Amino acid sequence: MSTDGRSWTCCLVVTDGSRLPPPRPSAPAPRILSSKDHRVLGKRVLATTGDELGTVVDVEFDPHTGTVSALVLAAGEIAGVRLIGVGSYAVIVQAE
Hints:
Shape: globular
CATH topology of the domain at 36-96: SH3 type barrels
Radius of gyration: 18 Å
CATH architecture of the domain at 36-96: Roll
Strand order of the largest sheet: 6-5-4-3-8-7
Distance between the termini: 47 Å
Structural class: mainly beta
C-alpha cells in the first residue's frame, strides 16, 4: 500500500521503492542479450576521436536516478554524461 492509501497490487516494486506499471500483455518480450558481451568492467574506453583513454575498472551510479555518474579508469574518472555507448569491443565516450 502506498503512503496515500492506494493499493499497488497492479505494479512491480523496484529495489529503490519506485513503482512501475506491469508490462502490457501486448508488449513484445525483452530481447535476450546473453549472446552479446555488454559487460563494462575491463573494457577499453575510446573517445569519439579514436583515442584510447584506458580501461574501465569501476562504474559509479547516481543513487537517486540510477544513471551512470562516472566511469572509473586507472588514470582517473570520466563523467557519465560523456558516455555514448557500450559495445562488444569498447566503451565509447564523447571526446573533450
